[in-house]
Amino acid sequence: MSSRPPARLGPLYLAGFTTAFGAHGVAAALGVETGDIGLTLLGFGVVLALYDLAEVLLKPVFGALSDRVGVKPVIVGGLAAFAAASLIGVLLPSPIWLGVARFAQGAAASAFSPASSSAVARVADPTSTGRYFGRYGSWKSLGYALGPLLGAFLVWWAGMPALFAALSVLALGATVWVAIALPRIPVLPRKRATLADLAREVGERSFLVPTLVLAATTGALGVAVGFLPLLSTHTGLGPVGGMATVTVLALASTLVQPWAGRRHDAGRLPAGAGTATGLVAIAVGLAVAALVPGPVTLYLAALLIGAGVGLATPLAFAHLAASTPADRMGRTMGSAELGRELGDAAGPLIAGAVGAATTASLGIGVVAIGVAASGAVAASALHGASAKE
């Protein structure tokens, strides 16, 4: 256990920023450059989906692998693979090869993302996991906020290859930093797990409820990132104003996460009350956007959603870390990350399907109801959890 977790966790914060920047930066740039690089609308959707598909398939696998061989090799290998995958987009910027690059990037992120979460839980002192998960999440939120802006600038400056080159350099730098600065985290003795054991683990309340919270936050985040700019175009804010709402959301999450983690570690913010409050704030923000969209209310909605995500996310991860034996931390974090990815896919899908059949506002409202229901589950199921677990 490190006596100086902040210095040793710095490389992990950069790894979190890298995966967030890679996910949102390239997605936004592809949307802008679809016609210029020869992508049809269907092809655009497929290229976007390949990154998430790789994560859904591989995060639990690499999470379990990190328990077997150690988290540091998996993080270093994943970051190096991300750097190599990004080079495909530099050297072969055609639609087919961009799809290959995105799938490879997603596969690489599937390795270092859950392993990084596991490393945060293993390196940080048990009494400060909330604080450091808050900081880790804060850096990921910063990547979500800056990714589209930096991606758009790089593409404007030198085309799509410049963005992939920047991602490759960033991932390579993170690889070197992790290899040098992150301490070796020993592999712990572990008993052989059967399918029945795995089913029992993922069926435990201590896993299901925080994973539901993470799925609800990412699902709502996906809806907000897509629909706030859409609603902005109907209220006179325009494209720049729409992008600004997403930036407000991400910055609110960036600022709130470390604060929430510190309050949790100090015993002043229990997991149940904190996650429920965060989900309620998200639901209220979505409801505001759906019911009274306007130049002012959309920014208020973004602020509420971002603050809610920032409040609920580190507490859910801290609860997972506190309730999971260290010898299967990677497997648990990988499965929880899978839950996040499913939520990320389900939220926009539900909002879009309902919106297509009725109105966009009703689609957002349905997601808001689901998030509020998740908050009620969290408040009830985690009621007995102390602030420090």
UniProtKB/TrEMBL annotation:
PROSITE patterns: MFS
Protein name: MFS transporter
Pfam families: MFS_1 (PF07690)
Predominant location: membrane
Sorted UniProt keywords: Cell membrane, Membrane, Transmembrane, Transmembrane helix, Transport
Subcellular location: Cell membrane
Bilayer topology annotation: Multi-pass membrane protein
Positions of transmembrane segments: 12-30, 37-54, 74-92, 141-158, 164-186, 207-231, 237-257, 269-292, 298-322
Top-level taxon of origin: Bacteria
Lineage: Bacteria, Bacillati, Actinomycetota, Actinomycetes, Micrococcales
Ranges of residues in domain Major facilitator superfamily (MFS) profile: 8-389
InterPro entries in alphabetical order: MFS, MFS_dom, MFS_trans_sf, MFS_Transporters, Tet-R_TetA/multi-R_MdtG-like
Biological source species: Microbacterium candidum
Record keyword Transmembrane helix present: yes
